Amino acid sequence: MSFVSSIKSNPKLKKLVHWMLIPPGQSRPRLWVRLILNRFFHERGKGSVVRRNARMDLFPFNKFALGAKSIVEDFAVINNGVGDVFIGEGSGVGISTVIIGPVKIGNFSMTAQHVVISGLNHGYQDVSIPPRHQKVTTKQITIDDNVWIGANCVVTAGVTIGKHSVIGAGSVVTRDIPPYSVAVGNPAKVIKQYNFTTQTWEKA
N or C: which end of the chain has fewer CB within 10 A? Predict the structure, then answer.
């Protein structure tokens, strides 16, 4: 049995370790976790940049990787507390963007400002318990290479956005977007796709 498995299988030990990592009632790791512990668990590619005012709510029990020459801008929030977060090479996380795992972003993709990409949902089914205290569910979000997501978009849990697609500003993506597409609206719908035969973007 691994060290992590032994902790998870012992409720008292798990509670103690959780308290050591996370202040009660919060979703942000303790300062010593952010400054010391995470250095041994997460990957940062050469030339990658995390701006000073970005909030990196990262935990050692899930994975995080930031590819070479990628950038996380000021006031962005990245949280891997409920799922791994992977960001490829040459990608950009825009100002005030929020990413909650499980999320995988490919190479040379970018978000504009105030984008929310969340693989997390709170339960709400039991009306005797506030949603805040119900179990969470997660579904993997995958954003392929060369994707551009416009300002104020929301990408919901379980969605895949295909390669070289564009999501128009203010859109809410609730279903998969095929590669080489332009999608807009709430819920987002494909309005253009690239035709490799004619080498033009055509109305869908």
Answer: N
